[in-house]
Amino acid sequence: MSTTLPPLPAFPPGFLWGASASAFQTEGAADTDGKGPSGWDAFAAQGRIKDGADASRGTGFHARYREDAALLAGLGADAFRFSVSWPRVVPGGSGPANTAGLDFYDRLVDELCTHGITPAPTLYHWDTPLPLDEAGGWLNRDTAARFAEYASVVAERLADRVPMWITINEPAEVTLLGYALGEHAPGKRLLFDALPAAHHQLLAHGLAVQALRAAGAANIGLAVSHSPVWTAGTSEEDRFGAELYDTITNWMFADPILTGRYPDENFAALMPGPVAEDLAVISEPLDWYGVNYYQPMVVGAPSKDALGDFAGVGLPAELPFGIRETESEQRTDFGWAVVPDGLRELLVLLKDRFGDKLPPVYITENGCSYDGLDDQRRIDFLDGHLRSLHEAIDAGVDVRGYFTWSLTDNIEWVEGAAQRFGLVHVDYETLKRTPKASYAWYRDAIAAQKSGH
User: Fold this and answer.
1) How far apart are CA 241 and CA 335, in angstroms?
2) Source organism's superkingdom (predicted)?
């Protein structure tokens, strides 16, 4: 039974309300338009998706994008954050662009514009073209140059209608899960030897910002995952472990982008190439900064009784930190702690750390996995996090918009179809869409904000 919540406080005029998705998780149509395989396609083909969900089918977004655009319009959403599939546009990772692939995104952008919805494409949401993955992926400096070329191709086709751009999504997760721990594509277990993948993604971001602007694009940011890091104990080992984890997951990406420096000179010394020159490119000024927030992390010294892990992945014993379970009265179906105030804490932390170097902020992802159509727990989650976001704005953080993750249920990477983050339910047999109770709540919340009530 749904419960009625009091109205949200009024957000600033012009605040952007949106929802998000990504290509690999939703598009399907893996063998159409001349699309090439991605590293994630190859990873899935190895049987690495736990429930055997068919990622090549996704949610059928490629065929049903008009239906999903209508769902966005029904929400009253101002914007839709989707991702462009790099291997659909440049199947070989380099070389000629695939006109049929570009045509799909042309149609999608036109459809969104028809509904008055701002298209906000992400250029890289983890689906590296397979030939580049096989040549080393983000361990290879050349991948950054190829990404900038691809960014130019997309901007030349879409910049006349796209007023908001995202270069890369969650470089920390790509580095840690894909290259350090081996649980995501491309499945490498390099631990600290994965650091070149971080640097090359950062370089790719900076080069792409330059390429986008050269092609006439404007209003450019990226989407970085952030979590407040809470120290698990009081020992020096606990403090060291928490600070190291905080540096790796939060500041190793934000600091180079916003300040032109790595947070620790020891990390800078481990990065490949002409690091000082690269940092001048990496710190190309942004128009805005995107924050993905899900939960705080409790971190201390390595310990046999460490209950937690990183994004569902157990950590090797040789790492100098251990993750504990975050205490919370409520947890999502993914087992993640529900801590709305962590969003306020994080945003204030960003403001305090970067001051006037922090551009306007958008929440580019925030959401939760819950099953069922009458998803009151998701409503409570969104309501709590939006109230926390409003408190951050009251505290002086310049937040311009909020994208919930996600519009529809989707293939949740290695978790497959088991974790449902959508406002809209997807039947994976028929691909039928059914709006959940949270869809109606978010629709009504947006309408109330726009009416001034």
Assistant:
1) 23
2) Bacteria
Q: How far apart are CA 416 and CA 429, in angstroms?
A: 14
Q: What is the pTM of this model?
A: 0.97
Binding site for substrate, residues?
25, 125, 169, 294, 405, 412-413
Distance CA 381, CA 306 (A): 26
Least confident interval from 55-59, 121-125, 300-304: 300-304
Our CA dihedral for 244, 222, 389, 416, rounded to 10 degrees, sits at -80
Q: Is 170 assigned a catalytic role?
A: yes
User: Which of 27, 111, 170, 345 is an active site residue?
Assistant: 170
Nearest to 416 by CA among 43, 16, 158, 39: 43
- Which helix (DSSP H) or strand (DSSP E) does residue 277 occupy? helix 275-282
Confidence check: pLDDT of 308 > 60: no
- Give the bridge partners for 261, in sequence order: none
Residue pair 27/58 in contact (Cβ under 8 Å)? The answer is yes
Q: Please list the helix, strand and coil fractions of the chain in percent, rounded to the nearest 5, in that order.
A: 45, 15, 40
Buried b / exposed e along 329-348 (16+ C-beta atoms within 10 A): eeebbbebbbbbebbbbbbb
Q: How confident is the model at residue 364 (pLDDT cuts 50, 70, 90)?
A: very high
What single-letter DSSP state applies at residue 7?
P
Q: What is the pLDDT of residue 307?
A: 47
Q: With beta carbons less than 8 A apart as the criterion, state whether 76 and 70 touch.
A: no
Full set of structural domains in the chain with CATH: 16-451 (3.20.20.80)
Report the chain's mean pLDDT, rounded to a whole number.
Answer: 96
Q: How confident is the model at residue 400 (pLDDT cuts 50, 70, 90)?
A: very high
Q: Using an 8 Å Cβ cutoff, are 164 and 219 in contact?
A: yes
Q: Specify whether 391 is catalytic.
A: no
pLDDT value of residue 313 = 61
- Parallel, antiparallel, or unpaired: how do β-strands 424-426 and 433-435 relate? antiparallel
Q: Which one is catalytic: 111, 183, 284, 365?
A: 365
Contacts of 127 (CB under 8 A, 6+ apart): 23, 24, 38, 39, 40, 41, 83, 85, 86, 87
Q: Would you say how long the chain is, in residues?
A: 453
Q: Do residues 378 and 440 lie in contact, with contact meaning Cβ atoms separated by under 8 Å?
A: no
- What is the average per-residue pLDDT within 345-350? 98
Percentage with pLDDT > 90 across the chain: 94
